[in-house]
Amino acid sequence: MTHSSLQLLLLLVVLTDFAVLGTSRLSACIRWIAFQGAILGLLPLVTEGGLTMHVVALAIGTVIVKAMLLPGFLRWAIREAAIRREVEPLVGYMGSMLFGAAALGAAFAVANTMPASARGSLVVPVALVTVMIGMVILTTRAKAVTQVVGYMMLENGVYIFGLTLARRVPFLVEAGVLLDVFVGVFIMGIVVFHINREFDSISAANLTELRES
Amino acid sequence: MNITPSSAIAFILVLLIAPAVAGVATRTKSVLTGRQGAPALQLYFDLWKLVRRGAVFSETTTWVFRLAPAAMVATTVLAATLLPLDGRMSFIRFSGDAVAFAYVLGLGRFLLVLAALDTGSSFEGMGASREVTFASLVEVGLFLSFGTLVVVTRELSLSGMLGMPFAHHWAANAPALVMISIGLFALLLAECSRVPVDDPSTHLELTMVHEVMVLDHSGPDLALILYGSALKLAVLGALVVSVLIPRGGLPAAGSLAVLGGGLLAIGVGVGIVEATMARLRLPKVALYLAGASSLALFSLILVLWTPA
Amino acid sequence: MLELLIVVMPLAAGGLAYVLQRARARSALLLMIATLHTGAVGLLWVRPADSALGGWLMVDDLGLVVLSLVSVLFLVVAYYAAGYLRTQTPRGGRAFVSCLLAFLSATSLVALSQHLALLWVGMESTTLAVAPLIYARNDRRSLEAVWKYLVLSSVGIALALLAVFLLATAQPVDGGSRALLLPDLISGASRLDPWWLRASFVFALVGFGTKMGLAPLHTWKPDTYGEAPSLVGGLMAGALTSCAFLGVARFTQVAMAAGLQTFVRPLLIASGLFSLLVAAAFIIGQADVKRLLAYSSVEHMGLLVLGLGVGGIGTYGSVLHLINNGLIKGMLFLTVGNLVLATGTSVVSDMHGMLRVRPVSAWLLLVGLFAVTGSPPFGLFISEFSIISGAIREHHPWVAGATVLMLTIIFAGIARMIIDIAYGEPTGADDELSSGGERASFVVGPVVLAGIVLLLGLYIPAPLRAVIGRAAASLGGAAP
Amino acid sequence: MILLFIGLGMVVSAAVAALVVRGDALRDRVFATLVVAGAGLASVPAFRVLGGAGHLAARWPSGLPGGDLSIGIDPLSAVFLLAALAVGAANAVYGAADMRAGATARISRQANAAYAVLVVTLALVVTAQSVLLFLSAWEMMAISSFLLIMTDHHQAHVRRAGFIYLVATHTGTLLLFVMFAVWSRGAADWSFASLAAARPTLMWGGGPLFLLALAGFGVKAGFVPLHFWLPPAHAASPSHVSALMSGIVIKTGIYGILRVVMLAGAPPAWWAWIVLLLGALSAVLGVLWALAQHDIKRLLAYHSVENIGIILIGIGLGALGTAYHHPMLAILGYGAAVLHTVNHALFKSLLFMSAGAVYRMTSTCNMEELGGIAPRMPITFAVFLVGSIAIIGVPPLNGFVSEWLVFQGLFRAGYSSSALRIALLGAPILALVGGLALACFAKAAGVVFLGRPRSARPLAAREVGPAFLFPQLALAAICVAIGLMPAAILRPFLFVGATIAGEPQAQLATAWADVAPDAQHIAVFATALLLVAAVIWAGRRLVLHRRSVRSDATWSSGYGATTSRMQYTASSFAAPLLSVFGPLTGVQEHRGATVFHSVPRDLILDRVVAPLWAYVRRSALRLRPIQDGRLHFYLVYVVATVLAFLTYLVVTQ
């Protein structure tokens, strides 16, 4: 049962990836990424090996950080900096969807070269897809906030991979990872906030003063 | 220093008849062009006259101007000491003395050119510039000829090349040696500023080379210069004679006779050229010298490709 | 326990510095901690290695090299900063000092951690500690710089994390070897799954390569170094990049131990050469001296991985180059910092004739020119020469040829700029500047660093030689 | 050996003294004394080695890769060391005076210090016996001479010259990196001894090695086409620096080539031919380009290119000798090369010094503005004349001796029975060079010193002080001495030649037996020349004594109102010769109704190097858009890299 539910959750993750990719409203983006964070929180519970203290703590921590704190913080940034609500893609939604599809294909292509032992599990391909779609969002969205969202998704992708190793990697490490991600996004938020104050438009595409003329 | 009676006599002979050689040249020319002309010994009289004259020096000139004529004669004399004038042995002999022969003449030229620039006159500057131009091209042909002689005789000193056994080499390499003899004669005409490179008898400064260069010298200095150039003609003539007529086999007296006769013949030859040819335009001179050098080059390649 | 102290002490001090009110006190604290840190690291050299946190923190040869480099560099920079903070107050000084100390702690953690995930945590922390330092001036340019730096290095570091996890996956599930602990990884290298290992190495190279600034992942470098205060630039180019290189080196150690040479070396050589190429292309006709230094840093990062890639004595040279490059980069940034303070700009067209305006710094800049371009008798000459001869000995003559070509172009570019800065007539604005008057605290640091680099070019003490040799051996190289 | 270190130590202390001692006069005196004394001390071991004291050596254990740093003096080092110390000391005295006359105290202090360092590094370069020490000394030499070139850095052309020099020399150094890297592959460590032992491991008979050596050291030696940095650098730097650079610094390139030949053994024949060709090429082109110059220092600089060519011909002959098993030729060739190196060091420094004296007095190097200096600076003119006669290689001075030795080699090659004989074709080329050099120095000495002043500048000229003159007179004396008694100095040079060629003592003995009498006769010849000239001069004096001697204006064919502008200029003097060689000379002529002037161009620098650099620059600028400031693109690069590496991962499965 755990295995099938794991697969189910992973599929949900992929769906959220595409949801973020497809939505045009910033708040919706953040909601989806929060949702994804929640799913990530559930993941360790359904991996083999049953419930240990370690796993539970990890799940709780993940949900708190990824599903509550960070999205909430981003909302705060949006509200405070009075950021307009559109995502402002540099590439159209259709285009980014296509990129996503390509990423999906690429992920499975790479996963197919995996050693037989790891085949069948969706973990690797889903992680890769999430990483790549995170990249797509980072590279195709104009707004700094959206790029933060993209970074979070990329981070989630990596994290999915980590969660499958929950028992190998001691808790301290996960804690460190979570903390780092949290602080990182926090600082990014601060900067986003400042950017908006300095350049009265949040579009990262305007940040091109430093260049080789 | 190895001075034998014959070499000493030959040396003195050359020093003495040098002016005559130049005289013979002018004489021949005037005869062939059907003019009265000066006697063959005219140059002796001129020298004697000049030596008794006083001198005028330009204010701009320095000691270089006064030193040059003496130095020029000295260098030419030294060049003579390197040639086996009696067909046997020179006063000073060492391997590679051919280099010294060419370069010591160069020293004399160098000082003479400086003397010309010393006067600060555009005419003499012009003459000097032309002199060095032609001279530097002459060097090439000269050394090509020396190279040929080295390869032919497998000797490194002039005495060795042109001395005793030279006759044997003639048998093997006649064509090459004939060619360099002609080449050397052509170079002689240039080096001694004769027609077709220069015309000593012209009176238009703009067309002169050597004469215009020494325009400012007077009295004894002019005498030295006139004698020096005559001596140069004789010395180079002696070189041509030695290449053309190997005298190793002859007894000393005979070889001296040949030398004297040969020198006069050279004078005649120069005269004939002056009578029959016109002076070349300056741009053409380079071609003329290139032709003379290429003769020597051909002969060198010839002997290089047919090892002795 | 010493290891733990080395990591924790600066962190605690950083916290303390944030609450200290008087600027003098903060500077004093900074200096004191830096000195203590260097002392502690010195102890590591004489005292037999033990471990802390169950082997997670342990000093090995490579780590010791990096740690000593970081410590010495930080000490000099701290001394410089003490003088610097007397005139300037970046971010009011408080956060500045705290972040500096946090940075020291994070880099020490990277250098000491034997657990790769812990190394990753340290690496990410360096990013976070440095970000506020870059943002010392609250203006658009520094804001843009810090934003680009944050996004790019976060992405990079995320990929590095992926690499760490992949490596963990490569370890066999049945116990025996502890997860992600370097000694176990190396000893049990034969039992690692090659596929995961390759994948993890690829992502590690991209991830840590971004932090190092290998082309084409270097794009944040000129902006960051150009905007950050010079001493921060010095720390980043000298210490931070070295730590990032340590990250790549750790994964290389494992890969080499697992016998993946044929897979790893071409990647390293290729990225090294490409970095050299890009650096050369952007150094020619560069208009801003700080950006020039940034590209020079790209060049040296390229040389580092190149040496790693060719192997043999090249790897030895690479480890040696790690030290030399770190020191000389610090020296150059501090020197340029003086000139920038004098002229108020880092654009060459406005800073001619510095020999008149700031003689000492200008002479130091000339020294730096020859040192950083690997001219004898400076240390970088030895290391670059080792790398080139390594390339030739390991049968990569064309790599050597390309490297030399790039080095020539780079030399021409750097020389052109530094000649323009040092020589000639000062541009109008500089004439008001007090000629000469340079405070000792601004020149002692560069002089010391230049001195060390010069010394390393003439004499390498035996213990250092031994450590470098062993480190190179652990990276699949050989001591000459 | 210890004397060497003490002497060099004294020179170093001279550098310190130049920086710290207060009081200009005192400082200069201390500086000059220390350098001269140090040079004197350091030269003692060199003399002992040339006297046959065997090889002196010392080592220093440094933890650097490649083993100890070792230093030593063998005959080859000894000769170059002596030349460096002699010329270095002479120029130190001259330079201190010159800088004091012409530069601010601060500039001259730094310049003197850098100069002393340069002398020390020169000594180290020629005595280093291990790779790292050699390269370090090599680069420090380059750097200190760079600093000296930049002495007048407020002038743009000086900065340009310094930049070109710096890049050129560093490129050479990098080539040397590669060369030593290639060489040390099979070697135990990086000491010269081990490199010599690694001889058999060289691939392709050491061909690549020799080519790299030729290229790397060639940049420093400055033969065509690697000479392009040389004329601007010499024109830009202070006179005594030009003198030392032209005299010694560029000769270290020759030293390097000879050292490689000595360590790596007999070079392949094709390499020898290449060297011979390069030598002939740079000899001819060098002197042609010199003829085209009107800046006296540039003219002298191009003559260095010419003389380097002559030296290369010597080296080529030596290499041919070893390649074709003709020991006599090998010894003669290398001996001639080394001897000409030393001779050129002597008279070229001499010429630069006297030219510098003229510059100091007239503050111009443009020959078109000079003239009429001789009456105003008689001694300077005299030494310049000595230098000129020496450099054009005519008897009775030292230049003739070394050129004669080169000709010896060419002739002897000529009548050997192998393909070697083709080398004889070098003789006429060398003769042509001699003729052109004669023309060139007739122009230099004549236009600068003689005739009437061509501008107001020479009018101010007065004879310079003893500190300027003594060094020149000393060098001039050595030139005359070598010229008049070659027998005394030829043997050690043949000894060096034999060492380089690796020929046994027996061969040296036979060679010496062959050359010694000739040397005697040259001495006789030179003396006789002077005697005859003296006699004729005396006779002339005697005659003129009793005659009336007037002085008057120069005779100008009846035209009275001549002016100094009517004189032949440098341009017009060289015009006929240059017109013979056409475009090869790279001059651009400007003919006008009232003026004829020609502008020289350096074919290599202006037609090859500069365009090449411009092209590299352009193509580099084309890459700028990569860094256009847009974060999204930067992220795309990251993605691209990941994908590229993943593809690599997949395909290498």
Descriptive account of the structure:
- Chain A is built from 7 helices and no strands.
- In chain A, helix 4 packs antiparallel against helix 5.
- Chain A is an all-alpha fold and 213 residues long.
- With 480 residues, chain C is mostly helical.
- Chain C is globular and about 70 Å long.
- In chain D, a hairpin with an 8-residue loop joins strand 1 and strand 2.
- Chain D contains 22 helices and 5 strands.
- Chains B and D meet through strand 1, helix 3, helix 4, helix 5 and helix 9 of B and helix 14, helix 15, helix 16, helix 19 and strand 3 of D.
- Strand 1 of chain B pairs parallel with strand 3 of chain D, so a sheet runs across the interface.
Percent helix of chain A: over 70%
Radius of gyration of chain D: 26 Å
Helical segment count of chain D:
22
Q: Pairing-aware structural class of the strands and helices of chain A?
A: mainly alpha
List the uncertain runs of chain A. Answer: none
Structural class of chain D: mainly alpha
Helix % of chain D is over 70%
Outline the biggest β-sheet of chain D.
2 strands, antiparallel
Write down the oligomeric state. heterotetramer
Major β-sheet strand ordering of chain D: 1-2
Our count of helices of chain A gives: 7
Order of helices and strands of chain D: HHEEHHHHHHHHHHHHHHHHHEHEEHH
Q: What's the end-to-end separation of chain D, in Å?
A: 63 Å
